[in-house]
Amino acid sequence: MYFGDPARFPYGTKSADTITRFAVEDAGFLLSRGVKLVIVACHSASSAALPELERRLTVPVFGVVEPGARAAVKMTRSNRIAVIGTNATIASGAYEHAIRRLKPDVEIVAKPTPLFVPLAEEGWLDNEVAEAVARRYLAGLADEGVDTLLLGCTHFPLLACVIGRVLGPKVGLVDSSEETAASAAELLAGQGLLNPGGPVRHRFYLSDLAPNFQTVGERFLGEPMGDVMRASVGEAPERMQ
Amino acid sequence: MYFGDPARFPYGTKSADTITRFAVEDAGFLLSRGVKLVIVACHSASSAALPELERRLTVPVFGVVEPGARAAVKMTRSNRIAVIGTNATIASGAYEHAIRRLKPDVEIVAKPTPLFVPLAEEGWLDNEVAEAVARRYLAGLADEGVDTLLLGCTHFPLLACVIGRVLGPKVGLVDSSEETAASAAELLAGQGLLNPGGPVRHRFYLSDLAPNFQTVGERFLGEPMGDVMRASVGEAPERMQ
Fold it and tell me: Which of B176, B192, B214 is the last residue of a domain?
């Protein structure tokens, strides 16, 4: 069960207070639908809101920062990791903390690269604009001895091709999604909560049925999204009458 | 008195329903502070929400579409006007309607140019990325005989330099802000509501005190914003207890 918040998207430009308020409302919606686990599949929300969600939710909750940090630490040989993300994610310092907890002697270069988000939304994944943006943000990283780049935003894997080309073959890219999925499976197995199998049904709830969302969603998913329903999350009381 | 909605910004990627809901809440906040006139100084909100606001508000309200259309019609000699804006503004067709109401025989080329918004937010107003984006969106417009480009989004005047260079000297740029201010002054004078003079005090209310907003705001305003206050607009009931 997926909840997306296009009505208030993007989160990465907002303050930690506002992101936390939104994330609590979003998780509340999923809980009201009876989920057994919540994955905060947004780096800005994971960075800002995880402690508050852990305090409030009655089911296990985890974010993408910890799994991403784990994957990056596994990959680096030079002990220099670069992290890119939205303004909110980088300002939070969440990745530095998570990486240092795992390996205190790693050097970390953290850099906000906010324009990658609208580039991916626009579908300009590998043209001359994407390349100019990647060069402006990332030129010089390989010279600093960085051998691992953590893609600290859900949108960035769509731009992996152009990012990899600009950085050259010496820098590996880390996408936290697989590590996150593995952690979720492990946690559910450990608690005896895994589904017995059978057909999987995806349900997509969105706070706004914006015309572009399905296009972008299917670009991520790699398959049709099927039925998408509107969810009234974060609406002011006047509208609820 | 200015209300900005960075908590839910940007509006231009959202559906007309959601933009209208937000705009009604925003205007309600300003009315609760006793304003005598509301200017919808956002092209996406003007395009989507003006009829609903006119129905609901007890004070005069107007948007930036009508003044922009008027300025463009005044400028064109070739009778070919191009309009650029967010996805929401262009999808609404509001500019085509407004221009055709003033001059039915004008040819209009309408084109969404959504990446100009985050470019302006990032402060990349005239570098190689801004130029590549402008070329990709606008190349060919001058060849189509267009002599007037309507900048149909509050952010676009910040990029006027690079947009003008890409289009060449035969295309004039229209920014609706001056025409909008003149219309406001005229309306207030006509109703005897103009202030008698004296010192002006600006008050800025924001739905989120996001770190970047003041920087971008002062880039627009050309002077310090002074005191900025947080306004709880559009918050869900759980938060209001």
Answer: B176
